[in-house]
Amino acid sequence: MATSREVHLVRRPDGMPVPNDFKLIETSVAEPRENELVVDNLYLSVDPATRPRLTRGQDLNAVLGGFALGRVTQSRHKDFREGDIVQSGFGYRERFVSDGKGVRKIAADPALPLTVYMHVLGGAGFVAYGGLIEIGKMKAGETVYVSTAAGAVGSAAVQIAKLKGASVIGSTGSDDKVAWLRSLGLDAVFNYHSEPIRDALETVTPKGIDVYFDNVGGEHLEAALRRMNSLGRVAVCGMISTYNDQQIGVRNLSAIIYGRINIRGFVAPDFMHLYPQFTEEMTGWLKSGQVKYQETVFEGIENASAALIALLNGKNTGKMLVKLG
Ligand SMILES: NC(=O)c1ccc[n+]([C@@H]2O[C@H](COP(=O)([O-])OP(=O)(O)OC[C@H]3O[C@@H](n4cnc5c(N)ncnc54)[C@H](OP(=O)(O)O)[C@@H]3O)[C@@H](O)[C@H]2O)c1
What we know:
Layout: E1 2-9, E2 22-29, E3 37-45, H1 50-55, E4 62-63, E5 68-75, E6 85-88, E7 95-98, E8 104-105, H2 123-135, E9 143-146, H3 152-163, E10 167-172, H4 175-183, E11 188-191, H5 197-204, E12 209-214, H6 218-227, E13 228-236, H7 255-258, E14 262-265, H8 275-288, E15 295-299, H9 304-312, E16 319-323
Parallel strand pairs: 9-10, 9-12, 10-11, 12-13, 13-14, 15-16
Antiparallel strand pairs: 1-2, 1-4, 3-5, 3-7, 3-16, 5-6, 6-8
Helix pairs in contact: 2-3, 2-8, 5-6
Bound molecules: NADP nicotinamide-adenine-dinucleotide phosphate (NAP).
NADP nicotinamide-adenine-dinucleotide phosphate binds next to helix 2, helix 3 and helix 9.
């Protein structure tokens, strides 16, 4: 019988997760019955949203939740063939048997690497696109500030905003990431570890901020609110600074009154009507080289929890992935 290794959460982290919060388990994978298929995962997606679930939502001694890209290796299901490339959300595991529910075939463009469907042409790129256009209501000529700008979502957001005619400012946590963002043509970039965020933002936003694409919350949000123009929009994609159970209060929320600022959180289902348009534009930008991306890849399921810990410590540039097989 085939086997699969999977990562379990065995202890809830106290702050930043550590390796002993996780355990690698070997399980057996049954032969597929009629109307079932077997998927071998090729890549796991490592996502910040996993961290809050480790505190609440993720069961202990159960496979860690998460998304993956895989290949169908056996099929007795009429809708799937051996070799199909599929996306699924069955967690940090190498292999699984499925009745097809929750397994989505992707028609991968042979001119593009498969992994782009896990970031810039997948969920990360789509929330960047919809967050700017639908939620941020970004217009050409406006100033857009994106935090965590060298990550999977952030690096897509800064490039989309540039392509749509905005003046774009990005912040990130290392000088190497600053250098990459500068090479993408941003109007200003700063390392928030090198100087106070509020001082840095004041220097690089002489015309204020029209749209803040927030990936961080806390101190970043407070600093951005100080610089928002009247009728500005804050599109809240994530609040990673709070995910390790560190809630940093934003002390100037009253800025939203006189500035008439709209703050709105969002998830991808809020703007699914934009999906065809996003796919067409992003595919074109990738093929023409107008959008670039980076990946940070850990190898092997045995390193998946290390990849999650590294992501939460800012060790990734672009999308964090775990390559399997
Ligand atoms: N709303 C949605 O549907 C949706 C979907 C996907 C992602 N998100 C959110 O989008 C954000 C980015 O996600 P991603 O997948 O693209 O991850 P990512 O940006 O590729 O990786 C996480 C990055 O966060 C930064 N970071 C970590 N701890 C931080 C802290 N305390 N303060 C500031 N920055 C910190 C690090 O970069 P630095 O070196 O720059 O610090 C790290 O590399 C997250 O908040 C995530 O939850 C939301």
